[in-house]
Amino acid sequence: MSNSTPVTPCLYFLSFLLSFLMSITMVVSQNTTTTIPFDVGLILDLNSSIEMTSMISISVALTDFYATHNFYKTRIVLHTRDSKNDNVHAASAALDLLRHINVKVIIVPEKSVQASFVFDVGEKAQVPIISFPAFSPSVSSSRSSHYFITTSQKNESSQAKAITAIIQGFAWKEIVFIHEDTEYGNGFIPYLISAFQEFDAQVSYMSVISPSATDTQILMELDKLMKLQPRVFIVHMKPSLGSRLFLMAQEANMTSEGYAWIITDSMTNFLNSMNSSVIEAMQGVIGVNPYIPQSKELHTFRNKWRKKFFEKKSGTEIADMSIHDLWAYDTVWALAMAAEKFGLNIDTPFQRPQPIDNSSDIAAIGVSLIGPKLLQRIQNTRFKGICGEFFLINGQLQTSIFEIVNVFGNGSKQIGFWTPKVGISRNLSTTSNSSSVYSTSISNLRVVIWPGDSIIVPRGWAISSNGRKLRIAVPMKTRVSVSGYSIDVFMALMTSLPYTVPYEFIPMGFDSYDDMLYQVDIQKFDGVVGDVTILPNRSLYADFTLPYTESGISSIVRIKEAEKKNPWVFLKPLSLGLWLSALGAFTFTGCVIWVLEHRINGKFSGSLSNQLVMIFWFAFSTVVFAHREKVRNDLSRMVLIIWVFVVLVLTSSYTASLTSTLTVQQLAVSDLRNGEYIGYQSGSYVKYALRKLGFDESKLRAYNTEQEYADALSKGSQNGGVGAIFDEIPYLRLFLSKYCDRYAMTGPTYYSNGFGFAFRKGSLFVGDVSKAITEADDSNWPSVIDLKWFGNKTNCREPGSTTPLTGLTIDSFRGLFLMSAVTSGFALLIFFYLFVRENMDIWKNSVASAENNSIKQRLVNLAIRFYHQADNPISKNVLSAADFEDEARRRIMDEASGYGIYTSTTDDNILEDSDH
C-alpha cells in the first residue's frame, strides 16, 4: 500500500496532460485543414487535342504545386466550360462563370477569336483573362487593356528577326511566305515585313491557304509556286494544315534538292507529335521555336504527364507533350502564387447593380473589386518555371532565345540558337560573352541536311518551270541579225552558269538606252544585252551586273600624212626651252672636258681656233657616240660617263616623240573644244559626258556605224567631218581592229563604269551572272571572243596607247641636267685644287719681285701657266697609270727625235726607224 500511494497522483497528471495535448493537436489539425477556395474559370474546346493535353498539364500543375506548398491556405478550384469551338458558346460560358460562380480569373488556353470575345467580357467586369495560346500572336498585341495576360512565350517580333537572320546568313534575296487564311496567319505578316526591311531581301510572293482547303486546292497553289523563281519558303500555319501542305509538297516534288523550307514555332513546337509520314515529308526543313532549357523538373513533369495521359486515354498511343503544355503548367503555378498573396481577402463579392434580374446582360455581372489588385499580383509574380524564368512585361511572357532545329530522321536536331544580342550562335555559351558581336554567319550553325538529303546550301531560286523563256532585248540600229561582242559574252556567261537558262533575243529599235531600260522596268522584257553603260540614273529602271568590259571614254583621230612632209617636223619632239637647255648643256660639257684635258692632251691644245673647234666637236659628237679623242684625265672620264647617259636618255626620248609626231595627228583637248567638230555614237551617254567636259554642243555630231566614223574622220572638221571621235574604249578597240592603219587612239581617258547586262529590279540572275564575270579570267573564252572581234593586237599599234599632245619639255629632264652639272662642277673643283697646289711657285716667286707682287699679276701668271701645255704633265693625282706610261714614252721619243734617232709622224706615236 505504501508503495502505490505516490504513483496515483502521477498517473492522474499524465492522463490530464495527454488529454490536453490531444485537444490542442485536434484544434491545430482542424485549423490547418481549413483552406480557402480560389475560383478560376477554364474555357476550352473539349474536342481539341491540344486543349485536352493542356487540361492534363493543368491537373498535374495543381497537384505538384500544392504538394510542394501544402502550407498554403488558398486552393485553386477549376470550373471548366466547353466552348464547343464557337464564339457564342465561349462568350456565354464567360458570362455564366462571372455571374453564377464569381470566378476571380478566367483561363482561355487557345483560339484567338474566342479569346477576344471572352476578353471583352472580362474587360467590362475587370476580371483578368489569362491565355497561353500556341496560335494567337495578334490577340495581346491588338489589345490596349491591362486585363489580358499572355503566358505563352510568343514574341513574334523576335521570331521574325530570327528567321530573317537565317535568310541573311544563307544570302537568299527573295522568299515566298505561305500562311493560313486566318487571323493567326495574317498576324505574323507585319513582323516579317518589318524584319526584312533591315537588310537586302524581300517577300516576293505571299501564298494564302484556307484551313478548309482540299488537297487538290493545295496542290494547285503549290503548282503556282513552282512557276516562280524563288525556292525559299517560310511556312506559318497550324500543324493540322501545315502537315497537309508538306504532304502535298512532297507529292509535287517540292521537297527535293534545291528547295529550302523554314517553319515558324507554330509547327516546330509540335514536331514531336506529328505523324511519321509528315516527318518524312519534312526532311531537311529548318524550324525555330522558343528555347526550353533541360532540367530535372522538366524531366519529372514529362514522366507525370505521360502517366496522366495514359490514364485518361488508355489504349491510345501516348503522344509527346508540346511547349503549349509547358506554358499551361507554369501558368497555373503563377496564378496559384498570386492567389495566395490575397489570403482571406479573395472572397470579396462583385459589386453589382440593384436589383439583379435573371437576364444575361453584361451589365448585370458587375465589377470585380479585387480584379485590379489581383492583376497586379499576377504581373508581379516571378519564379523559375520549367520553361525558364517566368516574368511578365506589359502582360506578355518574355522570351529572348530561339532554338534553330533541322528536321532529320524521326524528329529534329538542334543546329544552333538565335538571340537579339549575338544573333546566330552554335552554343549558348557565346551569348554570355560580353564581347560578342551580332552575327548571321552560317558557319555558326551545325551541319544542315537540306531537302533531298543534300548538304549543299540551296541557291534560293531557280528558273521558273512555266516554260517561258527570258525575253532579252537587244539594241539594234541598222543591222537585222543579232550578233556582236556583247552577244557573244552574254552567251558564254549563260553557258558557264551551273544551270540551264532558256532565253531568246528580241531585236529592238530605240531612241535612247534609257527608253530601252524603261521597257525592262515595266516588265516588257526580262533584260537588256548590249552596249549599255552602267549609270546611276539607269539603276532606277534595272539592276546591272558587274561590268564585262574595260571602262573609260577616249578618242580616235586620223593619222595626219601631211605632217610627215613638214621639213621642220624634226624640231617638234622637243620644246624650245628643252632645245636651248640641251644646247647649253652640250657647250658646258665641252668646255669642262677642254679644261680638264688641254694641258695634258695634245688633242685639246694648239691654236685658239683649234681649241674652240675641239670644244664643240667633242661635245656634239657624243650625240651619236662618234668622239674619237681619247681623254687622259680620270676626272674627264667621270664627267663623260654621266654625260653619255644623259645623251642616251635624251636621244631615245627624242626618237620616240618624233615617231609619234609622224604617226598621230596632234589635237589637244583645248583645240577640240575651241574649234574642231567632235563625233560620238548616236544614242549613247557620251554626248552627255562631252557636255560635262565643256565641249560646245553645236560642235557635236552623232554617227551610227563604224563606216560613218571612218568617213567623218577622213573628211576632217573643215570638210563636213570631225577632228576626233569620242566613244567608250570597247567601241574604239572594235573600230581600230578594222582601221588601225589610218586612225589611232590618242588623248586622255575619262572614267566610266563600263558596260553591264541589265535585268529586272530584284532579278536573281544579277548575282550569278556577276559571279560568272569575275570567274571569266580563269577561262579561255574571253581571249577567244576578244580575238574574234578586236583582232590580233600585234598587227597594229596598241589601241590603248596614247600620244603626247605637246613636245617634251625641260621638266622631264631637269634631273638629268642637274646630275650632269653637279658632276662637272665637282670635277672642276678637284682639278683647280690640284692645279693651284702644284703651281705654288708662282706665288712664292712673285713675292721676291715687287712688280709681280700684286694678286692680279699672280692670277695672270697662273692663267698663263694653265693655258700653256704642261712641261711635265706627269701627275699621278691626275693621270692614270696607263697615261703616265704613254706620256713618258712620248716625251722620250720627242727628245730622241731632236738627235735624229726617231721621227714622230703622228700624234699617236707611230715610230719609224732612222737611217742613222
From TrEMBL:
Main location: membrane
A single Gene Ontology CC term: membrane
Superkingdom as given in the UniProt entry: Eukaryota
Membrane topology: Multi-pass membrane protein
Location of the protein in the cell: Membrane
Signal peptide bounds: 1-29
Transmembrane residue ranges: 53-72, 574-596, 608-626, 638-656, 816-836
Name of the molecule in the record: Glutamate receptor
Molecular function as annotated in GO: ligand-gated monoatomic ion channel activity
SUPFAM superfamilies in the cross-refs: Periplasmic binding protein-like I, Periplasmic binding protein-like II
Family matches, as InterPro entries: ANF_lig-bd_rcpt, GABAb_receptor_plant_PBP1, Ionotropic_Glu_rcpt, Iontro_rcpt_C, Iontropic_Glu_rcpt_pln, Peripla_BP_I
